[in-house]
Amino acid sequence: MTTDYRSTVFLPTTDFPMKAGLPAKEPEILARWEKIGLYEKLRADSKGRELFVLHDGPPYANGNLHIGHALNKILKDVINRSRQMMGFDANYVPGWDCHGLPIEWKIEEKYRAAGKNKDEVPIDEFRKECRDFADHWIGVQREEFKRLGVIGDWKKPYTTMSFAAEAQIVREIQKFLMNGGLFKGSKPVMWSIVERTALAEAEVEYHEHTSSTIFVKFPVVKTVAKAAEGASVVIWTTTPWTMPGNRAIAAAKDAEYVRLRVDAVGEKTLAKVGDEVIIAKDLIESVSKACAIEGSSVLATLKGTDLAGTICAHPLRGQGYEYDVPVLFGDFVTLDAGTGFVHIAPGHGADDYNLGTANGIEVPHTVDADGSYFRHVPIFGGDRPARVLDDSGKEGDANGRVIATLIEANGLLGKGRLRHQYPHSWRSKAPLIFRNTPQWFISMTTNDLRKKALAAIDATEFYPAGGRNRLYSMIEQRPDWVISRQRAWGVPIAIFENRETGELLRDEEVNERIVEACLKGGADAWFTAQPADFLGNKYTPSDWKMVTDILDVWFDSGSTHSFVLEQRPDLKWPASLYLEGSDQHRGWFHSSLLESCGTRGRAPYDAVLTHGFTLDEKGRKMSKSLGNTTEPQDVIKQSGADILRLWVVSSDYSDDLSVGKTIIQAQSDAYRRLRNTLRYLLGNLAGFQEAERLPHAQMPELERWVLHRLAELGTIVRESCEQYDFHRMYVALYNFCAVDLSGFYFDIRKDALYCDAPGSIRRRAARTVLDHLFDCLVKWLAPFISFTAEEVWLTRYPSEDGSVHRELFPTIPAEWLDAALGAKWERVRRVRRAVTGALEIERAEKRIGASLQAGPTVYVVPEDKAALDGIDFAEICITSSINVQVGDGPADAFRTDDAKGVAVVPQQASGIKCERCWQVLEEVGHVPGHDDLCKRCVEAVSV
């Protein structure tokens, strides 16, 4: 009867389950972290270490987290955890952006639903509702962020609406007041009619929009160019409603223009036979097609310079538009569309404004805050003013009325419709207009703000490096920073303006009284106080007007460095790193840079890292209307937060990231591979004692090769963490686990671990290496799969208050790195791949069962033979025997392109199967008293 040797085999033993059950396990680990005060312990552990401060770009407190939030916060947590384990004090203070239009809009929606008017509610009551709304969502988001495994000072986060923060934001704007950088100007700004406020460029997004287009004739009334006399200059515009604001025409100085006579026209055209117009020569064909001109003659040609000093009449001259319209030269005029002339309305565009003011042309006020023309605007104002857009952002009657009036005045050559990209509010999604309105600005030239900001960019590290050029070009070209909003919820521009002269009050005593009031009662104090409360006895209150505009929320968030980094003793200024999505080159990175350079002369950060946007699996932007969103809450509920964390680090987050069910499933599969690797280590380290540990010099080559690979990985881990290249680190670790360990080392050493005697050198060496593997892998993976790493660590090292996250990355001994050994074993593995390829065919053809039934002959080149000498190659190939020879091998031998110069002849191993280790050996049956065991197994069972 065959003896049952199962009890003598050292099989893996562990309580660590194969099935993760992360949705249930992770909350238990979170509760433990909370109970033991892990965040506080980390601060105590790292006291005195060099600070690493990743300053949190504040998310907006107005709804549940989406997948983009998860990407952002997980990436921050991975960085902080890795820096902490690299020996830094990586203190993370989360924060929230609380002011601004989205919250105000929600409260107004509630009012509208109840039939209430916001303006009839006392401002302090309205602001309290906004504050309560933000506070609620901070609570919701805090728990959602914590569920992702993000560790930080959740008990003492920062918010832009705390009294201390609001007071400091007031201090920051006062600095611009005192250094002359703040000024009031009347410029065209992006204006939301729906939201009744100016918007910053960062609050604007571009969507497809259909606009009315018109070709407008401006009769020439004065010119030195004979070829232009009596003709009409034709402009093309996609904003007919701006025609009442026209004050000039822009031409291209070096372009070639023609005087064109209309000789024939088609149906439904506004052009008339005999019209003589001036347009760019290169655009004759496109203008003729658009205006249904079927026949024309070029009467004369002229250069742009010939038009210098030309004066035109507004097409509605005689109806209130009596002013001259000069032809000016603008470098923004192109010949890729239109007519080669651009109509200039200084109150409705940045180029228009700059060209107009440079030539002393007035900037008219034509459109009010609600999108209607002011009463003084001829024809379109008065008692029944036309509107550009209505309260919901739909097109009003302005375009139609302007076009009809121009047709009646014979002012149009043609009209049409154009589908193009047009600016919209990123909140209301409604179209915007450029509108001239008094606003508060921070000058880009006063105090050399632009120069300082550009120099600061050059002194900053960018990840990826392309972020530098993007931010640099934005700062290089940006206009003055419009910082005022005509809203109610936010930090006021708490300054005084002289009622008669417009002079700004610059008095440090007044400033300090304002700040003190905000410290005690928040920014609400500005709205509930009287001027005398701040002015004191030095000034007459009736002479001064309190500015009630509020600050752009980007100024709020751009000031966070001043009330977080500078004022918290557990942080430092400047931050080590700012990290947000790539859109923040025009948002938080941008405003923080300008605010800090304007008040402190340098950036508030040493480095900037950007990640891409989240897309669905087809590469489309996520949208609830498309039904293609992936909600982090759903992934956590079904799979666990560690799967989301794995998705983040396995992706190249410098580019846009796709996510969906298929991708999440792939991450779950990858997670199982990592979990099984860790479980294998735990199972085979059961009962490991320090006395078993074997010195490096006494280990077999295979174990020394594994340690060499660990040394190589150690370099990759540290380089990746320093460069924030976690994708590289993840790929290296995953491939090491899947290929080097599971597919190679573990497969080979199962036999020694299960069947060798406990004291054998080979088994001790393997267990020593497994211990090193455990220490390195669990710590290196801890920033990625933080819950699982904790579970694994505590399974092996149970503790009341211990945590893998309190550990440091291992220091790799220099002796482990052995390049020559690594190269040798690459050659060994290449030959092995040929052997395993041959045996796979043998198994498929059922000529053998397990590989241990084989004893193949392998033919190799001399260099391969030299590498295999001294190695038990049968052990490496998991065969019972193997014969290695130098030579080409027979023609019918197995060969593979993956191992050139290697030929394999599969053969059955000779001998009898050992009933304990299952190797087929000739020695089995020849050991006295143990007919069914090999010598090795006899020694093992005799211990």
UniProtKB/TrEMBL annotation:
What SUPFAM superfamilies does this protein map onto? Anticodon-binding domain of a subclass of class I aminoacyl-tRNA synthetases (SSF47323), Nucleotidylyl transferase (SSF52374), ValRS/IleRS/LeuRS editing domain (SSF50677)
**Tell me, what is an example of a GO biological process annotation in this record?**
isoleucyl-tRNA aminoacylation
Q: Which transformation does this protein catalyse, written as a reaction?
A: tRNA(Ile) + L-isoleucine + ATP = L-isoleucyl-tRNA(Ile) + AMP + diphosphate
State a single Gene Ontology molecular function.
zinc ion binding
Task: Look at the named UniProt entry and state the broad enzyme category this protein falls under.
Answer: ligase
Cofactor(s) recorded for this entry are: Zn(2+)
Q: What positions does the record give for the motif labelled 'KMSKS' region?
A: 621-625
Which compartment or compartments is the protein found in? Cytoplasm
Which CDD domains does this entry report, sorted A to Z? Anticodon_Ia_Ile_BEm
- UniProt keywords, alphabetically: Aminoacyl-tRNA synthetase, ATP-binding, Cytoplasm, Ligase, Metal-binding, Nucleotide-binding, Protein biosynthesis, Zinc
Report one GO cellular component: cytosol
* Residue numbers covered by motif 'HIGH' region: 59-69
Question: Which residues are recorded as binding Zn(2+)?
Answer: C914, C917, C934, C937
Q: What is its EC number?
A: 6.1.1.5
- Locate the Zinc finger FPG/IleRS-type domain: which residues? 911-939
Q: Which PANTHER family does the UniProt entry name for this protein?
A: ISOLEUCINE--TRNA LIGASE, MITOCHONDRIAL, SOLEUCYL-TRNA SYNTHETASE
What is said about the domains?
Answer: IleRS has two distinct active sites: one for aminoacylation and one for editing. The misactivated valine is translocated from the active site to the editing site, which sterically excludes the correctly activated isoleucine. The single editing site contains two valyl binding pockets, one specific for each substrate (Val-AMP or Val-tRNA(Ile)).
Assembly information from the UniProt record: Monomer.
What role does this protein play?
Catalyzes the attachment of isoleucine to tRNA(Ile). As IleRS can inadvertently accommodate and process structurally similar amino acids such as valine, to avoid such errors it has two additional distinct tRNA(Ile)-dependent editing activities. One activity is designated as 'pretransfer' editing and involves the hydrolysis of activated Val-AMP. The other activity is designated 'posttransfer' editing and involves deacylation of mischarged Val-tRNA(Ile).
Name of the protein in its database record: Isoleucine--tRNA ligase
Q: Which organism is it from?
A: Ferrovibrio terrae
Gene encoding this polypeptide?
A: ileS
